[in-house]
Amino acid sequence: MTPAFPTPPEPYFVPAGAYPLWEEALAAVNRDLAAALPGQRPLRLLAYPAEGGEPEQVYVALANGDAHGTSLEPARSAAEALPAVAEAAQDTVMECLWQVWPVCTLHGLGMHVAEEAGRPVWRCAGGGPSGEPAHVRAAVGELDTVHRPRRPNRKDRTPRRTG
Fold first, then answer.
1. Residue 71: count of CB within 10 angstroms of its CB
2. Which of 7-21, 94-108, 137-151 has the lowest mean pLDDT?
3. Where are the domains of the chain?
4. Residues 102, 122: contact at Cβ < 8 Å?
5. DSSP H/E element including 135
6. Of 77, 143, 146, 156, which sits most exposed with the smallest number of CB within 10 A?
7. How are strands ordered across the β-sheet holding 112-116?
8. Which intervals of the chain are annotated as region Disordered (predicted)?
9. pTM of the prediction?
10. 3-state secondary structure string across 56-86
């Protein structure tokens, strides 16, 4: 008879209210996901139960439970939770969907989480050969409010009246 190996505990979607800081952060990140990938269902928190003296591990997952990357570290404040959840969400979206997210609409480049004036933001590396500098596209949770800025060297394409 072969020895039976213990069955690892099954992951589960985290119930509402279990991790309020991460849930609040995930709501902001899901606004960005909806703005950039409107057909994508909202991300969720997925937990692997505590086992063998290890604490419960929580990940940001797609709606179907697929997740990638490292687990979230406990957060003491919303300011700590938001960038951690944004980075975890980005890892999951990019690795599970094989899609760059979020993408700067000016340069077509993937953006990364950075900090600007004490808040987490989506930063673009800039325009490559055109020499445009790195820039902040939007605060995390506010991608839907971004508008294309007027570029001073661009031709004016407004119709002209003649005659």
1. 15
2. 137-151
3. 12-145
4. yes
5. strand 135-139
6. 156
7. 112-116, 119-124, 135-139
8. 140-163
9. 0.82
10. CEEEEECCCCCECCCCCCCCCCHHHHHHHHH
Average pLDDT, the chain: 87
For 10-44, give the secondary structure using H, E and C. Answer: CCEECCCCCCHHHHHHHHHHHHHHHHHCCCCCCCE
Q: Which of 36, 38, 35, 56 is nearest to 47 (CA)?
A: 56
Rg of the chain over all Cα atoms, to the nearest angstrom = 20
Q: Which amino acid is at 58?
A: V
The two structure tokens encoding residue 88: 């975890």
pLDDT value at 149 more than 50 = no
Read off the pLDDT of residues 37-95 as tens digits, 9 standing for 90 and up. Answer: 999 999 999 999 998 888 999 999 999 999 999 999 999 999 999 999 999 999 999 99
